């Protein structure tokens, strides 16, 4: 599990998408704005989309293009995200 990079007013985590999510568990501090930078590095089909109903995002991930997703940190808990076919998943822990 990796801790996110943080300054006083924002937390950022970089996630590589290649046969899954690395890291697949992301920890953010509650109450500090957070974002995840997803970068897909191979062309495995269903990883071309990342989505999370719990965190209210859905993004297409072109190869070698970083897409940034804002993560709400107002509530503590564990929130999952996954690929377009829900075969690969990860989670965000806010606390």
Poorly predicted ranges (pLDDT <50, ≥5 residues)?
none
| Total number of helices | 0
What characterizes the major β-sheet? 6 strands, mixed
Return the string of H and E elements: EEEEEEEEEEE
Mean pLDDT: 93
CATH-defined architecture? Sandwich
Instruction: Look at the helices and sheets and give the structural class.
Output: mainly beta
Q: How would the global form be characterised?
A: globular
CATH topology: Immunoglobulin-like
* Terminal-residue CA separation: 14 Å
Number of strands: 11
Q: Name the strands of the widest sheet in spatial order.
A: 1-5-11-10-7-8
The percent range for helix content is under 10%
Task: Give the radius of gyration.
Answer: 12 Å
Query: Which CATH class is shown?
Result: Mainly Beta
In the CATH hierarchy, what is the superfamily? Cupredoxins -  blue copper proteins
Number of domains: 1
Q: What amount of the residues lies in strands?
A: over 45%
């Amino acid at each position: 599990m990796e801790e996110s990079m943080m300054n006083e007013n924002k937390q950022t985590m970089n996630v590589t998408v290649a046969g899954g999510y690395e890291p697949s568990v992301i920890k953010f501090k509650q109450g500090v704005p957070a974002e995840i930078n997803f970068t897909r590095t191979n062309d495995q089909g269903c990883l071309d989309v990342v989505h999370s109903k719990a965190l209210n995002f859905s993004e297409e991930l072109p190869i070698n293009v970083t897409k940034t997703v804002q993560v709400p940190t107002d509530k503590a808990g564990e929130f999952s995200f996954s690929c377009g076919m829900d075969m690969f998943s990860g989670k965000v822990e806010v606390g």
